[in-house]
């Protein structure tokens, strides 16, 4: 009954107050949750940007706590680095299946980040030159997650690059240091979950953070999201496969550069990226 009622609710309006209350839950991250914006990225803040987050993690806390929701609070001076006062005219794209889940759909609407990660959804944001966040690795990255390893699903994920080239969009490479250490998971389900993504578009991970409350992330793991560099793309109305591949390769190189430049700073000097 209650689930049916929620399913029939009309769309909700974004709520700055709800965003502020939600961000207060960051105190449950005993290591803290911080957004860093490099000097290279600062001059581009305010432009229409596609902010590309890596990795997804089991629950995408870097994307959630260090993303558009900070601007949606309507108090950027309290929630954003002083040099990166992003406008509240921002959004985030989510897996389409999430909008079919009552309660979760309403939460996304209250965040004001309620655009499905579909072709039409992304092209709509790009045409309006809005800044928005996207987790490039998607559900596949949830399936591939191994606690303590930096595993990214990216080699065969180039659709975002084609759309960005068609609009001459600037891409911000964002890395979530600590995301891969927030939750343990059952690795034996990997093949099943990869099949589930291909077949149904979602995953069913078996995971836990703290023993007494599995949904809470592991204690003492800081989460640091770095907006590391900007890749400025040419506008190509109908990019060829070769052009998409070329810029996709440049993107991977830029991502590797951001990871290598900052991993020591956040205690991951011994880590390497696994780009799958």
UniProtKB/TrEMBL annotation:
One of its GO terms (biological process) is glycerol metabolic process. It is a multi-pass membrane protein. It comes from the Eukaryota. One of its GO terms (molecular function) is diacylglycerol O-acyltransferase activity. Pfam families: DAGAT. Keywords: Acyltransferase, Endoplasmic reticulum, Glycerol metabolism, Lipid biosynthesis, Lipid metabolism, Membrane, Transferase, Transmembrane, Transmembrane helix. Pathway: Lipid metabolism; Glycerolipid metabolism; triacylglycerol biosynthesis. It is found in: Endoplasmic reticulum membrane. InterPro entries: DAGAT. It is an enzyme of class 2 (transferase). Its EC number is 2.3.1.20. One of its GO terms (cellular component) is endoplasmic reticulum membrane. Belongs to the diacylglycerol acyltransferase family. PANTHER family: ACYLTRANSFERASE (PTHR12317:SF0), DIACYLGLYCEROL O-ACYLTRANSFERASE (PTHR12317). This is diacylglycerol O-acyltransferase. It comes from Alexandrium andersonii. The lineage of its organism: Eukaryota, Sar, Alveolata, Dinophyceae, Gonyaulacales.
